[in-house]
Design a protein that fits this description.
8 helices, Porin, Immunoglobulin-like, six-stranded antiparallel β-sheet, alpha+beta, disordered N terminus
């Protein structure tokens, strides 16, 4: 229903908003004044019998029944009253109409006749003219601020539909894959029931990149369906967890996997929110109605968002409001050389060169005035690095976001946010690989060290679940699952608009708790140090050094230690000529 129509209905009846579309509204048209022998008028009122209130905006049409000529028209006033002038006595048909109402019975013929000139007669109409209230049912339009228009039902249908489609695709393409004498994707209802009741839940030790990358991406699909239908982060995360459970129990004949449930059901939500925010930021960035290319880009970033915007039209066209966060994005292209690789008992110097590309985004950096952290992932950091190695193209894939937190400050030079973070880390250098999903306590902040020098940083420490192993392992058992701990310290020293020095240190500990290998444990350390110098505008050049080490300790095999180093030269495209520094100080205090 349009705005004018809504207003007319609101004024017509106090109860109009509560009247369903199938309600018959009885409208009495009562002729209450006099008709004159040689002309006069017909007047009366139109009322809603359910509330005894006059209805405004009803069009009254008078027709001469014998000549089928128009006798006059008018519209009821705010009280539902009307008056129509007529030129002479005769038989007249009185019609009542209003947008949003249908006539469901013919109005009666009003007879005006008199044999004595200039003598008036009383006109009374005893029949009721019925109108049916049938407005065009307005399609609910999503409001991200109030939640009006969101749908729990739509993603509850889309997620199982996607799982059925994915299972059907796998049947066609991988129909000959067999596990313990059963075709992997030939599932049915008994498969689902048997997995739910009997399990057993096991650890999937298949291809590492499939278990830790492909599964997390499938989790983003479940998450995106719910999020783009208007559900909040926590509600969408619940849908993601259930979607992962449905695939594990009904998508394959293999036993359901504990690690896949964690990766798809939890890490899928973390990464899914990042993709949803990026897609929304792209849609929002042009101002006004997004054009074709922005819609396409958003659909590539978050396919479920693009799907719901396309299929449901205006229902989900409202763009998620970013609230204008402080952003810093960086794209780097270059070449890297693995300078050394060592294992316990031997080491070597190598010169293996690879092309590299990496992208990072920091969203919601602290310090921007009037920006708040009331929603999960109002601050997040995302980065991905790809290399020209066909066997190991993704070297790292990292996301972390603030789930619950608050802003804080110290004087005029320091602003920060602290709280609970959720993270997903996938790291795969040439000699080993690791993933971990964790919840951490920590802080992200910016500190002005001098008028033109700022230090940004993040410090985190938390626990989660992960896996680590070798890239060139033998068979299926070349990596180790277990409860995990992690620590992170990331610092970025910004020298006005000239240069940026950044250093990030990671430490991971994979224990034997909840492990596939009893009493085994591993420690991973990783350090990235880089310098970027702005050359012109948003363009810069940089160098980076990455060092990684892995210590593996198992009682039934020799301890293992691996280290490696990589040196890179890169061209850098910057989103901000000041390297993402956030300014909140008054001009006089700088």
């Amino acid at each position: 229903m349009g705005g004018k129509r809504k207003e007319a209905m609101r004024r017509a009846s106090k109860t109009s908003k509560a009247i369903p579309a199938v309600l018959l509204v009885a409208v009495v048209i009562a002729v209450s004044n006099w008709a004159f022998a040689q002309g006069g008028s017909i007047s009366g009122s139109v009322k809603d019998l359910s509330s005894n209130q006059g209805i405004q905006g009803v069009t009254i049409t008078v027709k001469d029944a014998s000549a089928s000529a128009l006798g006059g028209t008018t519209t009821t006033d705010a009280s539902g009253n009307y008056s129509v002038d007529i030129s002479s006595l005769g038989d007249y048909t009185l019609l009542a109409s209003k947008p949003g109402y249908d006539n469901v019975s013919a109005p009666e013929v009003i007879e005006l006749s008199d044999t004595t000139p200039n003598r008036t007669v009383s006109i009374y109409m005893s029949q009721k003219a019925w109108l049916k209230y049938r407005p065009k049912a307005p399609r609910p339009v999503l409001s991200w601020e109030t939640g009006v228009g969101k749908s729990y039902l739509i993603p509850a249908l889309e997620i199982p539909g996607f799982i059925l489609a994915l299972n059907g695709f796998d049947r066609l393409v991988y129909g000959n894959d067999v596990y313990e004498g059963k075709k992997v994707y030939s599932t049915n209802l008994s498969t689902f029931w048997d997995h739910v009741v009997h399990g057993p839940w096991e650890f999937d030790e298949g291809a590492f990149e499939v278990s830790q990358l492909a599964h997390v991406y499938s989790g983003t699909i479940y998450y995106g369906f719910a999020r783009s239908a208007g559900l909040n982060f926590w509600e969408s995360s619940a849908y993601t967890f259930v979607g992962s459970f449905l695939w594990e129990t009904a998508g394959e004949t293999m036993p359901p996997s504990v690690n896949d449930q964690v990766v798809s059901g939890i890490a899928g939500s973390f990464f899914g929110e990042v993709l949803f925010r990026m897609a929304s930021l792209l849609l929002e960035g042009g101002g006004g109605e997004p054009g074709f290319w922005r819609e396409l880009g958003a659909a590539v970033l978050s396919p479920p968002t693009g799907f719901n915007r396309l299929v449901f039209g205006d229902r989900f066209k409202a763009v998620f409001p970013s609230h204008d966060p402080a952003l810093f994005q960086r794209l780097r292209l270059g070449a890297s050389v693995n300078t050394h690789l060592s294992n316990r008992g031997g080491s070597s110097t190598i010169n293996r060169t690879e092309a590299t590309a990496d992208y990072s985004m920091s969203y919601g950096l602290p310090g921007k005035p009037n920006y708040s952290y009331t929603r999960p992932f109002d601050y997040f950091h995302f980065e991905v690095t790809a290399v020209s190695s066909p066997k190991n193209p993704i070297e790292n894939f990292i996301t972390r976001g603030l789930l619950l937190g608050k802003k804080y400050e110290a004087g005029n030079a320091y602003r920060g946010v602290w709280g609970l973070y959720g993270s997903y880390d996938y790291i795969s250098p040439p000699s080993f690989r690791l993933w971990i999903t964790a919840a951490s306590l920590g802080t992200t902040a910016q500190w002005w060290l001098a008028p033109a020098v700022a230090l940004q940083g993040t410090a985190l420490g938390g626990i989660g679940y992960g896996a680590v192993g070798t890239v060139a392992g033998i068979g299926q058992h070349d990596y180790h699952y277990g409860a995990a701990g992690q620590g992170l310290l990331a610092l970025r020293l910004i020298l006005d608009d000239v240069a940026m020095l950044d250093a990030t240190g990671y430490q991971y500990y994979i224990s034997d708790l909840g492990s596939t290998e009893t009493r085994g444990r591993e420690t991973i350390d990783r350090l990235n140090v880089g310098l970027t110098v702005r050359i012109y505008g948003h363009h810069g050049l940089g160098i980076q050094y990455t060092a990684s080490s892995r210590n593996a300790n198992y009682p039934d095999r020799a301890n293992s230690r691996q280290t490696e180093g990589t040196f890179s030269l890169v061209y850098t495209l910057l989103s901000d000529t000041r390297f993402g520094v956030v300014e909140w100080r008054d001009v006089g205090s700088r």
